[in-house]
Amino acid sequence: MFFIMVSFIGYLFGCLHGSQLVGKLKNIDIKNSGVKNAGASNTTILLGWKYGILVAFIDIFKATLAILLVLYILKDNGLTGDSQMLLVYVTLFFVIIGHNYPITMKFSGGKGTASLVGALLAIDWKVALIGIGVLLIFTFATDYLVIGVLFMYISFLVTTYMFFGMEPAFVVFMLSILSFMKHMENYKRIITKQETKLSSMYKKKVS
């Protein structure tokens, strides 16, 4: 029962897409414009940092709120310990699934990076600090957000295994594979030097 409940909550929150809301506000189909990604980075490329931050805020904190809601429900029902943590990771999994494959966008959404950051904030401050730190270091060192995301997933997998064990780590492993597949085109564009660099986004004027 708890598994079904947290899966539903996670997917429902995941379907609340920042880029879709901003796209309607600005009358632009963000998913099918620019680098064709329904996320904060593509919104920044198309509309500037102001709207990119707005999309990131929505996509980050929908995951935080979903996990906090699940934690409240589980604690209210006396469920704690390893079982609780595994259900938290299941919630995260379905938030990402909802973000990547939202019913509100014909199952074609984003790549889940911002939502992962929001989940880290709700899961554990140590995991969040390490994961976000790794994301920032590798993003700024390489000038490619996608490289930072790759190493953030690796660090998240390691820290989850260290702090919470094999079962939550397996959930992260599955999410890591999904993220790698979703970013495959970005990796190809890096090889051909066509991927948008982080530094070029700073120069985008606010629309």
UniProtKB/TrEMBL annotation:
Q: What are the entry keywords?
A: Acyltransferase, Cell membrane, Lipid biosynthesis, Lipid metabolism, Membrane, Phospholipid biosynthesis, Phospholipid metabolism, Transferase, Transmembrane, Transmembrane helix
Q: Kindly list the residue ranges recorded as spanning the membrane.
A: 51-74, 86-104, 116-138
Q: Where in the cell is it found?
A: Cell membrane
- Which SMART domains does the UniProt record give? G3P_acyltransf
Q: Name one GO molecular function term.
A: acyl-phosphate glycerol-3-phosphate acyltransferase activity
Q: What class of enzyme is it?
A: transferase
What domain of life does the native source organism fall in? Answer: Bacteria
* Annotated catalysed reactions: an acyl phosphate + sn-glycerol 3-phosphate = a 1-acyl-sn-glycero-3-phosphate + phosphate
The EC number(s) given in the record are 2.3.1.275
What does the record say about its membrane topology?
Answer: Multi-pass membrane protein
Q: Which GO terms describe its cellular component?
A: plasma membrane
- From the UniProt record, give the pathway where this protein acts: Lipid metabolism; phospholipid metabolism
Q: Which GO terms describe its biological process?
A: phospholipid biosynthetic process
Tell me which family the UniProt entry assigns to this protein. Belongs to the PlsY family.
Query: Could you describe the subunit structure of this protein?
Result: Probably interacts with PlsX.
Its annotated function is as follows:
Catalyzes the transfer of an acyl group from acyl-phosphate (acyl-PO(4)) to glycerol-3-phosphate (G3P) to form lysophosphatidic acid (LPA). This enzyme utilizes acyl-phosphate as fatty acyl donor, but not acyl-CoA or acyl-ACP.
Q: What is this protein called?
A: Glycerol-3-phosphate acyltransferase
Give the originating organism. Oceanobacillus piezotolerans
